[in-house]
Design goal:
1069 residues, Leucine-rich repeat, LRR (right-handed beta-alpha superhelix), Phosphorylase Kinase, domain 1, 24-stranded mixed beta sheet, seven-stranded parallel beta sheet, 54 strands, globular, leucine-rich repeat, disulfide bond, signal, receptor
């Protein structure tokens, strides 16, 4: 009876149990089918899967989809909760993804997906992580993320999203990380009551870097009380850093570099007690010199921040601060004297600012400081080297200041930290956004420039730079800290002491632990060092890679021990008092690239062993007392580009074999005793390189026109006959002529002596003022060297003329070509004003501005020294390109380069600079067709407080803005107008003034002509035919619209250069 009841019960409920089991099994299979179909659709939209990652995604295996690659199921119902796939190579994101309703993580980075994000994503109400970074998604963000209430992480970085960030793009109150960097978003940051601000209670990391966001940093950012990371670098933000940012008390990382910010650094940052990284400017140049899309994209990022005042001392002294990166930020003031042992600073970069005063000894309390750059400031006094732990620093640079005194001997240090900076994982704590810190400039600088590898050996580059100051006394012995020299690390040490006033003898040893180094590079040039070059300097430091001690007072000979320095690549001992012969052991230096020994008293012959140096690029033994012949073995130095043998006593013929050097671009054998014929050299073309050799056959200017123009005239006429009487008369005439010549010669000598005395008296007065330089140059510049290099400003070296004077090409030393702009006396108000303005211009550096190297001012002469650009000017490029098919990327690149230069002058320079003479002839090109703006700042610098100024009309007719020409009203908008005219010339190939324009009824000017064609829909007639045919036409029309907007007659409608840049970038996309 006990068994009957359970049996009856089981029979009674069996149908129900069977139904229940069957129902749930079907439901489970149905759920698998519901998730499999959208996943298979996802696969269908993948265009390339080279690694067959999705090969197992098939209908037949849909019952086991939880084992598909990248798919994770969760819970008891077997629904898909995680999709992580990377490594695909193209496709689109299928809208079916929104049907996987239980999905919590959608992570598909780096798959090269394109198209727009499907709006069906709003159906994923359980989604917590959305990672779409590193794809090619584009378009605007249409879907409302406010529906995704579970979102914690949103990463859309590294795509091509455009348009404004939707004001209604409100994330859930749980969101912690938002990364929209490296896209093309424009408009303002929607940090208001309807945007981020309503949902920033939990927001910790906000990254909006490298977009085109404009407007100001909203003060509402202070309401995000838990915000730890704010990265808004690489946009076009204006205004100040808001004081309200001090309310974001948890802030740890702030990067505002590469914007157009002004104003003071807010003192309220001191409330952010955990602030660790503060990046105000970033001068690292992203251009890699290539022509690919990436290089164009990166080169758009300019640094236009120009702050006012100093960094508040309270902020500098924050005990949490580890990285302060603010080069060329227009900051002034003094360094604080209150650092204590609680200092956490590891990186301090205030280079190229206006910091004055002394370097405080309390900075030595920052025991972890490994990167210190105070170069190009106004620092004075003595360096507290006994307190600063320089041996422990990976990068130490105080160059180009006014520091004085001696350098005491360094002491051995036990260092806490090796390398530039070590941010431990606990410090990063970025919960999925770890790369934020690795975009900070110093870390990128470290990663790219300082750390390398060779097999399993880590190589660190350590730089200590004391150059361009007023240090005196003997050279001390330098040490490196123990943290740099470990078993698995080798150091390449670069020590720069050049351009000071060090005296005493050249020491036998410069670095104590030289043999522990990988390589050693030392620059002692332009000091007052004397004595001999010790053998032990080379024998005891076989790691020596570069040794530069040019322009000192070093004497003695070069010993054979130098041949043991097998790593030596650069040897520069020019301008000293060396004597003796060149040792044959120089031929052992197989890695030698630059051997510069000119300007000494070296004797003997040129060793034939130098022909073994197959890596040698430059050999300069000019201005010595060398004898013998030019060794034919030099033809084996196949890499040789520059060979300078002039001003010696060499004899014999120029070896024919040397002419076979295919890389040789400069040869100078002038002022020797050479004889015979001049072989034909493929690239050298200057007869001055052969003058001063009385037995060398003449070198007419046409000698190098072609290989066939090398015939020489016969020296004797074999068919000539004369009888005895004619010979006698000839002798008598010759004697009379000789006597007359002797008298003329004596008279000439007297006149020359008088003239030279007068000339030398003038030169001696000129020498009282030296050429002022703003950067390190490979030779000592003087008035005489410039005048000599330009042939006393001969028309032969003339390369251009303009409103401010004439420009000459000058070769000041091997491989150092410059452009000398000889200014018209009277163009400037006075010498003092000229020097004040030019010194300001000398600090300006931008990749699209011609570099001002130095200047000279005298009562009767004024000139500027610029870097020489070999590609000519834009005027020649535009109007001499007949037959050349110039493509859109080149046109766009030139337009962008000029715009970046102008935007920098208008917004980054204080006081701002209005060029006032923008025209194609003032835009220079290099060999890669990068464009550089010249003659900037030579008109008048605008005061910081002035928006407009009234001055005399400057500029060139055809490029002058209407308001400028009629009212003499100067503003940056005048430059914008001129820029628009240049764009019209660039795309049309026509000049700004052309009589043919009058056929269209609007005068000779290109602007109304272009407006007429635009209005009548005849735009194709405006472009050069080759450019229009090659296209792309929509982008060409976009550039035309920009040009016409720039040439608007109404000042208020005409855009600023910052807005022109934004329009250009949108055009590029």
């Amino acid at each position: 009876m006990a068994l009957v009841f359970p049996l009856l019960l089981s029979l009674l409920f069996h149908p129900f149990l069977l139904f229940f089991t069957t129902y749930h099994a079907n439901a489970f299979n149905s759920s698998i089918h519901n998730d499999a179909l959208p996943l298979l659709t996802f696969k269908h939209f993948v265009s390339s899967d080279p690694s067959n990652l999705l090969a197992g995604w098939t209908r037949s295996s849909s019952s086991s989809l939880c084992r598909w690659h990248g798919v994770t199921c969760g819970g008891g119902d077997g629904r898909v909760t995680i999709l992580r796939v990377t490594g695909l190579r193209g496709g689109e994101l299928a809208s079916s993804i929104g049907d996987i309703s239980e999905l919590r993580v959608l992570s598909i980075p780096g798959n090269m997906f394109s198209g727009e994000i499907p709006t069906s994503l709003v159906n994923l109400r359980e989604l917590e992580v959305l990672e779409l970074q590193g794809n090619n998604f584009s378009g605007r963000l249409h879907f409302q993320m406010s529906y995704l209430e579970s979102l914690i992480i949103v990463n859309l970085s590294g795509n091509a999203f455009s348009g404004s960030i939707p004001n209604g793009m409100v994330f859930s109150r749980n969101v912690k990380i938002v990364d929209l960097s490296n896209n093309q978003f424009s408009g303002s940051i929607p940090l208001n009551e309807n945007g981020f601000i309503s949902s920033c209670d939990s927001l910790k990391h906000l990254k909006l870097s490298h977009n085109f966001l404009s407007g100001e940093i909203p003060p509402q950012i202070g309401k995000c009380r838990n915000l730890r990371t704010l990265l808004v670098d690489g946009n076009i933000l204006e205004g100040r850093i808001p004081r309200e940012i001090g309310y974001a008390v948890e802030l740890r990382v702030l990067d505002v570099s590469r914007n157009s910010l002004t104003g003071r650094i807010p003192r309220e940052l001191v409330n952010c007690l955990n602030l660790s990284v503060l990046v105000l400017t970033d001068l690292l140049d992203d251009r890699n010199g290539g022509n690919d899309e990436g290089s164009l994209e990166d080169s758009f990022r300019g640094e236009f921040n120009a702050f006012v005042g100093n960094i508040p001392h309270e902020v500098l002294l924050l005990s949490s601060l580890r990285v302060l990166w603010a080069p060329r930020a227009n900051l002034g003031g003094r360094l604080p004297a209150g650092w204590t042992d609680s200092c956490s600073l590891r990186v301090l970069n205030l280079a190229e600012n206006y910091v004055a005063g002394v370097v405080p000894g309390s900075l030595g309390m920052c025991k972890n400081l490994t990167f210190l750059d105070l170069s190009s400031n106004n620092l004075v006094g003595h360096l507290p080297l006994q307190k600063l732990r320089v041996p422990c620093m990976t990068y130490f640079n105080v160059s180009k200041n006014n520091l004085l005194g001696t350098l005491p001997g360094f002491r051995k240090e036990r260092c806490k930290v090796g390398g530039i900076i070590a941010l431990e994982p606990a410090f990063l704590e970025l919960e999925g956004l770890n790369d934020a810190y690795f975009n900070i400039p110093v870390l990128r600088f470290q990663e790219n420039a300082f750390i390398g590898s060779s097999g399993f050996e880590e190589i660190t580059v350590v730089t200590h730079d004391f150059s361009w100051n007023g240090f005196v006394g003997p050279l001390p012995l330098f040490f490196l800290g123990d943290a740099h020299l470990t078993a698995n690390r080798k150091v390449s040490y670069m020590l720069s002491l050049n351009n000071n006033k060090f005296n005493g003898t050249l020491p036998d040893q410069l670095v104590s632990n030289c043999n522990d180094l990988k390589t050693l590079s030392v620059n002692l040039s332009v000091n007052k060092l004397s004595g001999e070059v010790s053998q032990s300097l080379f024998l005891d430091c076989l790691q020596l890679k570069d040794f530069e001690a040019a322009y000192n007072q070093i004497d003695g000979s070069i010993g054979p021990g130098i041949g043991e320095s097998l790593l030596l690549q650069r040897l520069d001992l020019r301008g000293n008092k060396l004597s003796g012969v060149l040792p044959n052991e120089l031929g052992n230096l197989k890695n030698m690239k630059w051997m510069l020994l000119g300007g000494n008293n070296l004797t003997g012959e040129i060793p034939y062993q130098l022909g073994r140096l197959t890596s040698l690029l430059v050999l300069n033994v000019s201005h010595n007392v060398l004898i013998g012949t030019i060794p034919p073995t030099l033809s084996n130095a196949t890499s040789l580009e520059i060979l300078l043998l002039d001003h010696n006593n060499l004899s014999g013929e120029i070896p024919l074999s040397v002419s076979a050097l295919s890389n040789l671009v400069q040869l100078d054998v002038s002022f020797n005793n050479l004889s015979g014929h001049i072989p034909h050299f493929q690239h050298t073309s200057d007869c001055d390189s052969y003058k001063g050799n009385k037995h060398l056959h003449s070198c007419p200017d046409s000698y190098f026109d072609s290989p066939t123009s090398r015939a020489t005239a016969p020296l004797v006429d074999k068919n000539s006959h004369s009888h005895r009487g004619r010979k006698l008369r000839t002798v008598v005439i010759a004697l009379a002529a000789s006597a007359f010549a002797v008298l003329c010669t004596l008279l000439g000598i007297v006149l020359v002596i008088c003239f030279r005395r007068s000339k030398f008296s003038r030169i001696s007065s000129i020498r009282r003022r030296e050429v002022v330089t703003f950067q390190i140059v490979p030779t000592e510049l003087s008035y005489e060297s410039v005048v000599t290099a330009t042939g006393n400003f001969s028309i032969r070296y003339l390369i251009g003329t303009g409103g401010f004077g004439s420009t000459y090409k000058a070769d000041l030393s091997p491989g150092f070509l410059v452009a000398i702009k000889r200014l018209s006396i009277g163009k400037f108000q006075g010498m003092q004003q000229f020097e004040t303005e030019i010194r300001t211009l000398g600090r300006i550096r931008h990749k699209n501005l011609v570099t001002l190297i130095g200047y000279y001012v005298g009562k009767a002469e004024m000139f500027l020294i610029y870097n020489y650009l070999s590609g000519g000017n834009l005027e020649a490029f535009i109007h001499d390109r007949s037959g050349k098919n110039v493509q859109w990327p080149v046109i766009y690149k030139i337009a962008k380069d000029i715009a970046e230069a102008l935007a920098y002058l208008h917004y980054a320079c204080v006081p701002r600079i209005v060029h006032r003479d923008i025209k194609p002839s003032n835009i220079l090109l290099d060999e890669n067709l990068n464009a550089y703006l010249s003659d900037f700042g030579l008109a008048r610098l605008l005061e910081v407080s002035e928006t407009h100024a009234t001055t005399d009309v400057a500029g060139t007719f055809g490029y002058v803005a209407p308001e400028y020409a009629t009212t003499c009203r100067v503003s940056d908008k005048a430059d914008v107008y001129s820029y628009g005219v240049v764009l019209l010339e660039l795309i049309s190939g026509r000049r700004s003034l052309d009589p043919s324009f009058s056929n269209y009824g609007n005068g000779f000017n290109i602007v109304p002509w272009a407006e007429l064609l635009m209005t009548e829909g005849r735009c194709s007639e405006l472009f050069s035919s080759a450019l229009w045919e090659s296209g792309p036409k929509e982008k060409l029309l976009g550039l035309l619209k920009i040009a016409l907007t720039c040439t608007e007659e109404t000042l208020s409608i005409r855009p600023s250069m910052k807005h022109v840049l934004e329009k250009l970038k949108q055009l590029k996309s």
